[in-house]
């Protein structure tokens, strides 16, 4: 509503100001000045209206008023008057005229020194680049981390040790913390992850690379090649936090079924697997209605009969003769190590490699490096990008074109608005200057 009112009044102001200017500069009566003014600015008024498509209704009404009522009122109400020489308005006119002369003088001086002004303009653009955090600020953040662990997690934490300015490049805005747990024997690897810039494309910021198995490469061979890639990435100066997005292998209970014995005992193998799946893993039976809500029925063995490997001997299967046969007669258990999940990407066995670019390097540099290291691995793997990295690869090389098209569109709109091919250059080049005025270098550093 405020924007619509402002635009409605703005067109009328354009008409009134231009009529008053012609009356003052050319000494014409109000009617002749109004007719000449409308010949000059009618096209500009229409152009302003067409430029704001989103509020076309308000702009249409504004143009109708500016083209009809406002010119009529100007011709009827405005009268030629002598400029104010005394009083408040006289003083204001003299102040405004002096300011205009000074501004015109400075603009002329600037145009006469193009090399100096262009150099100063470039220097101001460089001066706006933000600086990194200071060492004292890094130390304050590390202190907050120590306080949080020693207060909120004091029942689990023994010692917290932090180092300021410690990373691969020795920057003062980086730090590292070492945490000793009170209990447990595991050595956890902790990574601080930044959320992705585009929600839904990945789980964190940085690159996501898929190491794929090719040909007859087994999962074990692919895991060995993955470890080689991680070792190479850890030694690269332009990569940090490179890791495989998978948990380490965990203990798993392996149940070995002697099918020959099971068949000899008159058992159906389908009955064996169904009983084992339902008793230890659970099986869906049907639905039922409870107080107006549909609930599911699952079948599963009681916890005390499936909590230890020896509990397998407590389960029986009915054979073809109707007698019950224990699992111990044809099955045995043993512990093995294996992954919690097996990942695949584009139909191939894969390991997802995640990481970030080190300070001073771009995400494109990091992606090129991890791709080069993957290509240096022995034969048996291929690679692919996913998440934000895939989008970045697909959009790679288009940023320059997009910026050029955007600047061209803005330039053409400004050229149509001002009916000039030179004024848009001044408007576009003033954008960095405005940013420098609003954000001084010492404020941008914060």
Could you explain how this protein is built, in words?
- The chain has 4 domains: 2-125, Up-down Bundle (Multidrug efflux transporter AcrB transmembrane fold), CATH 1.20.1640.10; 135-247 and 342-395, Multidrug efflux transporter AcrB pore domain (Alpha-Beta Plaits, 2-Layer Sandwich); 250-338, Multidrug efflux transporter AcrB TolC docking domain, DN and DC subdomains; 400-444, no CATH class.
- It is 50% helix and 18% strand.
- It contains 15 helices and 13 strands.
- Strands 3, 4, 11, 12 and 13 form a 5-stranded antiparallel sheet that branches. A two-stranded antiparallel sheet has the order 1-2. Strands 5-10 form a two-stranded antiparallel ribbon.
- Pfam families: ACR_tran.
- The chain crosses the membrane at residues 45-78, 423-440.
Helix/strand order: HHHHHHHEEEHEEHHEEEEEEEHEHHHH
Structural class: alpha+beta
Level-2 CATH architecture of the largest domain: 2-Layer Sandwich
Tally of individual helices: 15
Q: What fold name goes in the CATH topology slot of the largest domain?
A: Alpha-Beta Plaits
Radius of gyration: 38 Å
Largest sheet: 5 strands, antiparallel
GO molecular function: xenobiotic transmembrane transporter activity
Transmembrane segments: 45-78, 423-440
Organism: Eumeta variegata (Bagworm moth)
GO cellular component, one term: plasma membrane
């Amino acid at each position: 509503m405020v924007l619509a009112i402002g635009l409605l009044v703005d067109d009328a102001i354009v008409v009134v100001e231009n009529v008053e200017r012609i009356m003052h500069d050319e000494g014409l009566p109000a009617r002749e000045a109004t007719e000449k003014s409308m010949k000059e600015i009618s096209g500009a008024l229409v152009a302003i209206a067409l430029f704001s498509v989103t509020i076309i209704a308000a702009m249409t009404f504004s143009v109708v008023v500016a083209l009809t009522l406002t010119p009529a009122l100007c011709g009827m109400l405005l009268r030629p008057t002598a400029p104010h020489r005394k009083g408040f308005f006289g003083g204001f006119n003299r102040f405004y005229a002096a300011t205009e002369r000074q501004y015109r003088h400075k603009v002329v001086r600037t145009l006469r020194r193009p090399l100096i002004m262009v150099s100063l303009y470039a220097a101001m653009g460089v001066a706006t680049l933000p600086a990194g955090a200071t060492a004292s600020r890094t130390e304050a953040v590390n202190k907050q981390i120590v306080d949080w662990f020693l207060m909120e997690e004091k029942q689990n934490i023994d010692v917290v040790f932090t180092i300021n300015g410690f990373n691969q490049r020795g920057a003062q805005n980086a730090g590292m913390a070492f945490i000793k747990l009170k209990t447990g024997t595991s050595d956890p690897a902790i990574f601080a992850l930044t959320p992705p810039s585009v929600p839904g494309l990945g789980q964190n910021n940085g690159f996501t690379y898929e190491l794929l198995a090719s040909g007859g490469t087994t999962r074990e061979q692919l895991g060995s090649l993955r470890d080689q890639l991680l070792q190479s990435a850890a030694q690269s100066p332009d990569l940090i936090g490179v890791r495989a997005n998978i948990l380490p292998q965990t203990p798993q209970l392996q149940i070995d079924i002697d099918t020959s014995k099971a068949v000899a005992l008159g058992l159906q193998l389908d009955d064996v697997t169904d009983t084992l799946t339902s008793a230890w893993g659970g099986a869906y039976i049907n639905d039922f209605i409870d107080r107006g809500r549909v609930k599911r029925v699952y079948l599963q063995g009681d916890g005390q009969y499936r909590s230890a490997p020896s509990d397998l001997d407590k389960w029986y299967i009915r054979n073809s003769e109707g007698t019950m046969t224990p699992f111990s007669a044809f099955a045995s258990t043993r512990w093995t190590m294996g992954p919690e999940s097996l990942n695949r990407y584009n139909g191939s066995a894969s390991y997802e490699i995640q990481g970030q670019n080190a300070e001073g390097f771009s995400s494109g540099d990091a992606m090129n490096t991890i791709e080069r290291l993957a290509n240096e691995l022995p034969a048996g793997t291929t690679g692919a990008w996913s998440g934000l990295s895939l989008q970045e690869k697909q959009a790679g090389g288009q940023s320059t074109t997009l910026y050029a098209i955007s600047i061209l569109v803005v330039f053409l709109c400004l050229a149509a608005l001002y009916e000039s091919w030179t004024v848009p250059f001044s408007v576009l080049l003033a954008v960095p200057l405005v940013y420098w005025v609003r954000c001084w270098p010492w404020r941008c550093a914060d």
